[in-house]
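Quick illustration, no need to memorize.
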Amino acid sequence: MKRNNNWLWWVWFVLVAGLVMTGVVFAQGKEVVRVVKTEPANNQKDVSPDLDRIVVKFSSAMKTDSFSVVAAGQGETPEVIGSPEFTDEHTCVIKVRLKPATLYSIGFNSETRKGFQSKNGVPAKPFVLTFRTKETGSAGEIQRGRKPALEDESPASTDTKGRRPSGAKKTVVYKVYVEQTRGAFWVLIPVGWNIEGGIADAPFQSPKINFATSSQDGNASIRYIPGARYLHMPNNPFAGQGTPDAYGNIYLTYMEPVDYLHRVVAPNLYSSEVREVSAKELIDAEQALKRFYDMIGIAIPQIRCGALTIETSENGKVFLDRLIAYSLVTPMPEGIVWETQIIQVRVAKDKVADYEPILMTILSSFQLNPNWLVAMNKAEQQRAQTRMRYQQEILEIQDRMLKHRARTNEEISRSMGLELSNQAQFVDPKSGEVRTLSSSYDNTWTDGNGTFFQTSDPNLDPNNPQVQQELGLSGNFRKMKRR
């Protein structure tokens, strides 16, 4: 029996991040070629300076005599020795000479140089590989404990030896925030942060997340921005680009998420000039979404995810913004329906070290209420006058969701850790509850009632009455164990 998919895009939104298929992916009937794996891995921080080759694996069989290795990204370009060579139709090897303690970036294809092409002549999507080599001393290689910024390293986030500035926050307290109107989602929010919005309704459309939280000093924030439902109708003469239909759908040619962020999202979000830092497809996020759908027994159409990191200024302050776009793509005989949701993660460039662990914890903790998902689906089925037809199926979905809720949440947390920086799983020794929180702090505590306390101060005890009074805490806290 075919399920109604209008509500399904909500489910993938719990993963946010960064989060499908390996091999050839098709959009608009055309082959999409992309980098699926590199050695070293993208954003790896402990690469040996003795490494003498970079390995790039593509999703499609490639022309083995055509290359475009370009200078790109904010790191130093590695010294390339000789010409690239394909060891098989999918794998290219670039011989390099590296230096210790150096941030490197190297691009494969660009908007103007498109030498890497599939056998069908389709250029690979531009990809920038960034990594850092370890330091080498007289006693051998010594890996410094650098911590990555949101996605791209910022000189303001660490000192020259890769250590956190002394001004970095040592303590943070989180409380579970439940969406106020419908209990649609819950998320960990630091005590004292501002909270706005929740769920936004639109006629003839599924509800969307319209929620924001920000630090009191204005240096950090996360916004969940409602996207739109787009119709790609190439053979419809009345489908003018950017025009809406009677149901709020917008006619627009399908775009991959990174293109969508470039061409639609960024121009609408920013009135001042911005500088692009990096752009990437989030293949791991797509795979995590597939696993999530499999767990609850729902067949899904194509999911696409991408991220764009930019530098912008506002009121004389420089910010790093990471924009994430998720698209649910549903092919139709006459075109494509694609829905989007956008997330904006913002931090002042000179405050990255202070706020990056907190932002990543908020982002990875966001979860939708599965009961609300089922209720929303029921309401949509009622409006479509098909409630009786789907009632039993909805009950079965609800039963599967509740049975697998714990396993699903654990899988989501694990998958998010692949995309987000410096996250780890912590277990409440009493209840067995598992939470994904920042690994940047030495001690993590919980009261078992939705409050989480992280600190790097060895003398700070959340059960101390004086500490509780100063931080507005109450109850008995116990240390969580890191998995």
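The chain has three domains: 9-16+180-402, 49-133, 422-482.
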